[in-house]
Write a structure and sequence with these properties.
Blueprint lengths: L2 H32 L6 H9 L2 H10 L6 E8 L3 E2 L5 E3 L4 E9 L8 E10 L5 E10 L15
Antiparallel strand pairs: 1-4, 2-3, 4-5, 5-6
Length: 149
Amino acid sequence: MNRTELFSTLAAGILIGIIAGGAFAGFIQEAGSEMNLKVDASDAVKIVLDNSSAREYISGYYSVPDWRVLRVTLVSGATYDLNGTELDGGEAVWKVEVLERTCACSSVSDLYVLEGYVSADTGELLDVSTRLVPEYKYEKATCSSTVCH
């Protein structure tokens, strides 16, 4: 496969991922509105990304939007951060993950991971965690499980 074909395949995979991610976020928002939550998925993303630690991490480590994945998940029950620390024992919480690959190489690489947790009831930012993680831990949402590898 030449570089042009590889780039086209990579671009198509990223586009499909963005479309699927948008559909997923829309589904999550619909599910949240059916539960009469005071804070929806897009509000949770804004709250996390407005945090100074999150902004600093993104500006320092994230450089290629095409390598990035945004996931928003509504979590009920006990919620844990990247370090395994329990954040909240019962209320509904939005888990916002911003992942970016460290390179566009043709193998599994590391991901910069930003996780934020927001109360779906109050909008309170419960935690923001960052970490460099092997991509295989997140492969279903990244390029390693699609056509480019």
